[in-house]
Structures are given as structure tokens and as C-alpha cells.
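Example for tutorial group B:
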């Protein structure tokens, strides 16, 4: 009997210096699919995916902006998705973090590979050109990856103070035991001063706009104008969005998922924690696979599972013990783990 897998798609910040050459390293350059992406990008006068992945040195000014990073991550993640051994594993559902929702749509078959590429590239460029503000990550985790109620209270106090002062500060993403804030430039500066310093937090995300907040209301009509509803179909695998809603194949109309993707998903909080918890509870996977590139989603996924007690998980130590024995969470961006589920 095949093992059941929940697939989690990565967001914008996952192709960093250590990921340079990901397609070349794990996928022989990416084959025909990357060739199609290269042709598409060349036609738009953009650096090709092969050139970005094959660069001699990683450049933050080249690799991190949304108009380049988005489709590069798409190429890596979709190649990883295709590499899962379907003779041994059954993908029962897909979800993703932030931009990972677009990737999840492609994995689920709601959009085909080419339509997914157009969606990702168009939205990456639109955010790069028209986005404003930024994002800051702060951790609410204790040493054992539980959500610390005292830190939750601090977040609530910061949000209340910002609201009283009329500051443009919002919750962008609920990310396991972390929270991602979205804010305008003044709000970003205020948050960096106001949030308690804790290890590497608060951490500003470079080249990120104020995703998933009302600061991007102006992007919504542009997104609708740039992306045709005809690209969206009925899907083949259940997809769980940033509200925790399950979009079951043939169980929704294309306009509904189109309006969410290019509406609420852009300008309202993305609850990745809830998405993971709903997917884990509803589809009871044997393993959870996080597509590459990068490994930054491993901790947030584990924290979300710990928070809901999935499979009796009690904390970080318990999770690490189970991972050492037989990984229940497979990060395909880790060379030592990807072989667990690839052919």
C-alpha cells in the first residue's frame, strides 16, 4: 500500500546563497520544463531560470527581487514535486506558504505548468514594481517550539498600540510559532524598535513588500487584469489555502478560487499555521514533504503540528527524536532527506 503524503510548497524567501545551483544539483538543470520557462522569460527580456540557477555567484540584487526569485523558486519546487516517487507515495493534498499558494495551485492541477508559470512570474513582477512596505518576522516560540502565551500577549499589545496610533501595521502571515508583520516604511522602523530583541528576531525580510495586508489593496485590480480566469480549472488534488479552506477537485468553480487567489490571498492575513493543521487533520498523511528550494519551512511546519498535537507530538525534542528514527517531515531541500521520497 502506498504511503500518503501532504505536500507543502515554499514561499518567496527560499532561494538563498546556499541554494545556488539547485536545479543543476538535483535535477540536471531542469530539463524540458526549465527550457520552456527559459523561452518564456527570454521572450519578456528577463534573465532565464537557467542563467539564474547557473550563475557563478549568488547576488542578492539579482536573485532576491520578486521578478526573478518567484519563477526560480517555482521551477525548483515543481521539479521536486515531479521527483516524488508515485509508485510508493500518494499525494493526498497540497498547501503552501504565501507565494507557495500559487505553487500549490500548479501541483494540484488547478492551473497547468505553463499557466502557473505565467501566474507566478506576473505576480512576482507586479509585486516588485508596485508593492510597498515590507515584512518583519518575530518568534513567539519557547525553547521547545511551543507558542509562548506571554509572547502572544506582546504581539497583541504591539498590534493594539499600532492601531491606537494609526500606524499601518498588520499581521501578514501566521507561520507556526512565528508571526510575520506587514507594515509601511514608518511602521517597519517602528516595529524594529518596538519588538523585543530575541536572538535573531525581529528579522526584516529583504526585497519583500507588505504581502497579505491592506497595504496591497491596490494590487488586487491589477492582479485581476493581468491574470485570466480561463487559466484556472477544477484541479486534481485537494488544495488548502491560507484561510484553511479545502478546495476539493471538481468541488468548486474556477471563479471562486480565482477570486480568492487574486483577492483575499493578496490583501488579508495568510494563516499558514491553520493551513498545515487542517491539511494534517483532514487528510491524515503518513509523511509531510516540504518542496525545495531551501529548508526554512521545516520549523514552522513542525511548530504548527506541535501546536495541534498531530500524532501526539509534544515539542521540539519529541519531533527531533521521531525525525532521527524515520522522518515524518521530509525537507526536499536537504540532501540527506530528499531520498526518502524520491525515486
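The residue assignment follows.
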Amino acid at each position: 500500500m502506498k504511503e500518503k503524503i501532504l505536500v507543502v510548497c515554499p514561499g518567496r524567501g527560499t532561494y538563498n546563497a546556499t541554494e545556488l545551483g539547485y536545479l543543476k544539483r538535483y535535477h540536471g538543470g531542469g530539463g524540458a520544463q526549465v527550457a520552456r520557462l527559459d523561452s518564456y522569460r527570454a521572450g519578456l527580456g528577463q534573465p532565464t531560470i537557467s542563467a539564474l540557477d547557473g550563475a557563478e555567484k549568488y547576488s542578492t540584487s539579482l536573485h532576491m527581487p520578486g521578478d526573478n526569485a518567484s519563477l526560480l523558486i517555482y521551477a525548483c519546487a515543481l521539479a521536486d514535486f515531479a521527483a516524488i516517487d508515485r509508485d510508493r507515495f500518494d499525494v493526498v493534498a497540497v498547501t503552501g506558504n504565501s507565494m507557495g499558494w500559487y505553487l500549490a495551485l500548479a501541483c494540484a492541477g488547478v492551473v497547468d505548468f505553463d499557466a502557473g508559470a505565467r501566474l507566478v512570474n506576473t505576480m512576482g513582477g507586479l509585486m516588485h514594481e508596485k508593492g510597498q512596505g515590507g515584512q518583519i518576522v518575530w518568534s513567539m516560540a519557547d525553547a521547545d517550539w511551543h507558542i509562548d502565551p506571554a509572547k502572544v500577549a506582546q504581539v497583541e499589545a504591539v498590534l493594539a498600540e499600532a492601531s491606537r496610533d494609526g500606524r499601518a501595521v498588520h499581521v501578514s502571515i501566521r507561520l507556526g510559532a512565528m508571526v510575520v508583520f506587514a507594515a509601511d516604511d514608518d511602521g517597519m522602523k517602528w516595529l524594529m524598535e518596538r519588538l523585543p530583541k530575541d536572538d535573531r528576531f525581529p528579522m526584516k525580510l529583504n526585497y519583500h513588500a507588505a504581502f497579505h495586508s491592506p497595504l496591497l489593496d491596490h494590487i488586487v485590480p491589477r492582479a485581476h487584469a493581468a491574470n485570466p480566469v480561463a487559466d484556472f480549472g477544477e484541479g486534481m488534488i485537494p488544495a488548502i489555502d491560507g484561510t484553511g479552506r479545502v478546495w476539493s477537485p471538481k468541488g468548486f468553480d474556477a471563479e471562486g478560487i480565482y477570486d480568492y487567489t487574486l483577492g483575499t490571498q493578496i490583501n488579508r492575513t495568510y494563516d499558514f499555521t491553520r493551513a498545515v493543521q487542517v491539511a494534517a487533520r483532514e487528510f491524515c498523511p503518513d509523511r509531510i514533504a516540504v518542496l525545495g528550494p531551501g529548508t526554512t519551512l521545516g520549523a514552522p511546519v513542525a511548530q504548527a503540528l506541535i501546536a495541534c498535537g498531530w500524532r501526539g507530538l509534544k515539542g521540539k525534542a519529541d519531533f527531533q527524536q521521531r525525525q532521527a528514527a524515520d522522518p515524518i517531515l521530509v525537507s526536499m531541500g536537504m540532501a540527506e532527506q530528499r531520498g526518502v521520497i524520491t525515486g
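Residues 66-83 form the longest helix (18 residues). Compare this with the pattern of hydrophobic and polar residues in the output above.
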